[in-house]
């Protein structure tokens, strides 16, 4: 039996209310598969690619390039099986007649992050999905839970997924005590305790990967598996000049160069992304936290922590962008882990190649 | 996402957070506590528009209503600042500047210089400016350029709730006298503001829109009018860069010059009267330091050289609007097409 499906404007992150259609990457009549990249969309925060949530024939491109549409608006019609033009017209007409944009009521639409005193400090985390062994997503240096905005909803289709703001980051408390890896790993453990999670899958990006590895070292029984994305702790070198210039940057121009190094495609660094990072850096306590952590992670171009010995005790998947300018992708060589090297992606591989990362990580988690 | 609050609430929150952090911070002004001492919140207005509402009860003894004598309470605030306190005094309308100008011009602004750097005057004077409220010629002026003219003062003019909070905290922590200018029509504007404490540095302009064809430099409420014009012009294929100065003293010359060197065209938008204003100041700066980059004459969009009219129709004509900015931009673009 045939089915007529609608592809709609996604919601990336909590503040997205609308997106601008940039370019269609596929044409009317194309056969598409789940996960295929269908079109590029720009928002005031971020530029991204909409992936097919289902397979079928792309029969009607409704949204036009340069058109700005609210979250949930109709982008395209996909047909599984057969349908004639009149049937598609009817679906489009009905959708447009019934569609109401969730205007100005961001608070009311869907789940929101939570905050609580966890182990003596304020932590913020965001939960999506339910069931299964939970997955905890741990962002990297100077990141926050929004670093997973292209991954979190997709991974939450199959299990409970919790993304947190590490201490010193996002909307969690900024003051660090020792300001080292142990303190961050202990904070993640405290959150697991707070949420009564005995055992979780952990996935970490960059510094967050080292936080996960270190947690597996401190409390191996709490860890079901490790997903390590462009992770710290798996080799000897790191781009020390990046860390220094990022920490020192106090204005937009100074921040632009290091932020651009994070991505293989510099066009992904938007004005708003720079502004948001500046806003983070201006918060009281952030500068000190970043200085403490950068000193804890590296001395010049040398990493301070070698956590490769932790591998082997838990199932592990290592993901890397081949064009990573912060931590070389060659660190993925010879590890006791599954490895996916994503060609053409930079350090923020989970954003730049979200679909590949999501598919491989979901597949890995299903096995363990 | 960060929570949204109004410009007015952002100012109130900055005051409360700094008063909590630093016991030397206090507020003085006309009606800042409000009421006649009767019990209950209802009687404490918190200023003529309620910006300091609630602080009187939260900080007993540190929100002081002054008699209607600017020369008296502004002078008292300047004196307190020299003696180790951090006063935030409120000049209800900037139009009343004449009643306390000596205290600012000849005292606060001069102490650091005349005492050989041995005296600091960490004073903030919050003040309301701007036309559009049908408040006539003595309650509607924009005198930012008057303060900017005086060496020894820092002058701040936030355009958004986010900047209002961060710049006010910066102002309170600054060791020099700061004139903090708030537009009446911005008080109800909503925007994302972190609950946490943060500062926005002085002398760092904000690129609120990136563009390649022409630079629009402005500050205060006109930032939003310039953005409206830029969005209209974008539909006609003209790509404006919009720069919000945030502070007029210190002035972020580098960002202005960097932008004009990229676009080669400049329109300066200022709600103030045109003579000896920020508009002329920035035009002079660019003519002097980026003349070679300019493809054609600089345009200024300002109020006319008249008092603010009381008539609704005339006041609407007086205030620069998006249509006037768009006309100025088109004039510059059309005049420089061959140079493009």
TrEMBL record, chain B:
This is Alpha-ketoacid dehydrogenase subunit beta. It comes from Pseudomonas farsensis. CDD domains: TPP_PYR_E1-PDHc-beta_like. It comes from the Bacteria. GO terms for molecular function: oxidoreductase activity. Coiled coil: none annotated. It holds the Pfam family Transketolase_C. Its EC number is 1.2.4.-. Residues 5-189 form the Transketolase-like pyrimidine-binding domain. It is an enzyme of class 1 (oxidoreductase). Keywords: Oxidoreductase, Thiamine pyrophosphate.
């Amino acid at each position: 039996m045939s089915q007529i499906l609608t592809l709609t404007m996604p919601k990336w992150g909590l503040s997205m209310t609308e997106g601008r259609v940039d370019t269609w990457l596929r044409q009317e009549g194309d056969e598409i598969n789940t996960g295929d990249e269908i079109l590029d969309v720009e928002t005031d925060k971020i530029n991204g690619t909409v992936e097919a949530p289902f397979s079928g024939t792309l029969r009607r491109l409704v949204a036009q390039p340069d058109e700005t549409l609210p979250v949930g608006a109709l982008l395209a019609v996909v047909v599984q099986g057969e349908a004639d033009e009149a049937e598609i017209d009817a679906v489009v007409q009905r959708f447009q007649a019934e569609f109401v944009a969730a205007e100005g009521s961001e608070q009311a639409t869907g789940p929101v992050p939570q905050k609580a005193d966890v182990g003596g400090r304020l932590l913020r985390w965001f939960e999506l999905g339910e069931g299964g062994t939970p997955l905890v997503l741990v962002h990297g240096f100077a990141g926050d839970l929004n670093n997973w905005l292209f991954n979190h909803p997709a991974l939450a289709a199959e299990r409970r997924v919790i993304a947190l703001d590490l201490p010193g980051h996002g909307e969690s408390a900024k003051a660090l005590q020792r300001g080292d890896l142990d303190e961050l790993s202990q904070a993640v453990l405290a959150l697991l305790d707070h949420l009564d999670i005995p055992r979780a899958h952990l996935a970490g990006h960059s510094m967050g990967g080292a936080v996960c590895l270190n947690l597996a070292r401190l409390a191996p029984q709490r860890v079901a598996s490790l997903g390590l994305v462009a992770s710290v702790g798996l080799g000897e070198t790191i781009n020390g000049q990046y860390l220094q210039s990022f920490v020192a940057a106090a204005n937009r121009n100074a921040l632009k160069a290091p932020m651009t190094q994070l991505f293989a495609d510099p066009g992904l660094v938007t004005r708003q992304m720079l502004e948001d990072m500046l806003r983070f850096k201006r918060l009281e306590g952030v500068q000190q936290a970043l200085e403490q952590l950068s000193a804890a992670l590296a001395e010049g171009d040398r990493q301070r922590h070698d956590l490769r010995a932790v591998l082997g005790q838990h199932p592990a998947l290592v993901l890397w962008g081949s064009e990573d300018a912060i931590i070389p992708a060659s660190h993925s060589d010879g590890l006791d882990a599954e490895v996916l090297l994503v060609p053409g992606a930079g350090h923020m591989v989970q954003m730049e190649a979200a679909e590949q990362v999501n598919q491989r990580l979901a597949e890995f988690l299903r096995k363990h | 996402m960060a929570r949204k609050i109004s410009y007015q609430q952002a100012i109130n929150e900055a005051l409360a957070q700094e008063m909590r952090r630093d016991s030397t911070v206090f507020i003085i002004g006309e009606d800042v506590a409000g009421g006649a001492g009767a019990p209950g919140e209802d009687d404490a207005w918190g200023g003529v528009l309620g910006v300091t509402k609630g602080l009187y009860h939260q900080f007993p003894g540190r929100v002081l209503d002054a008699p209607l004598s600017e020369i008296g309470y502004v002078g008292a605030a300047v004196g307190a600042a020299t003696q180790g306190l951090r006063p935030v005094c409120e000049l209800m309308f900037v139009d009343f500047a004449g009643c306390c100008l000596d205290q600012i011009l000849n005292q606060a602004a001069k102490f650091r210089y005349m005492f050989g750097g041995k005296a600091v005057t960490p004073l903030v004077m919050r003040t309301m400016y701007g036309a559009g409220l049908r408040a006539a010629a003595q309650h509607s002026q924009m005198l930012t350029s008057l303060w900017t003219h005086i060496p020894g003062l820092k002058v701040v003019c936030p355009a958004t709730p986010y900047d209002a909070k961060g710049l006010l905290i910066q102002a309170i922590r600054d060791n020099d006298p700061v004139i903090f200018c708030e537009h009446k029509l911005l008080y109800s504007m909503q925007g994302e503001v972190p609950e946490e404490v943060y500062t926005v540095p002085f002398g760092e302009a904000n690129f609120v829109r990136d563009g390649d064809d022409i630079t629009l430099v402005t500050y205060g409420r006109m930032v939003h009018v310039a953005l409206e014009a830029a969005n209209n012009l974008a539909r006609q294929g003209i790509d404006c860069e919009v720069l919000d100065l945030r502070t007029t003293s210190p002035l972020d010359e580098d960002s202005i010059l960097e932008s004009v060197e990229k676009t080669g065209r400049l329109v300066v938008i200022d709600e103030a009267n045109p003579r000896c204003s920020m508009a002329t100041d920035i035009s002079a700066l660019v003519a002097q330091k980026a003349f070679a980059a300019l493809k054609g004459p600089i345009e200024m969009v300002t109020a006319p050289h008249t008092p603010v009219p009381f008539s609704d129709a005339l006041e609407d004509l007086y205030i620069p609007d998006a249509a006037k900015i768009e006309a100025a931009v088109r004039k510059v673009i059309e005049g420089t097409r061959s140079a493009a």
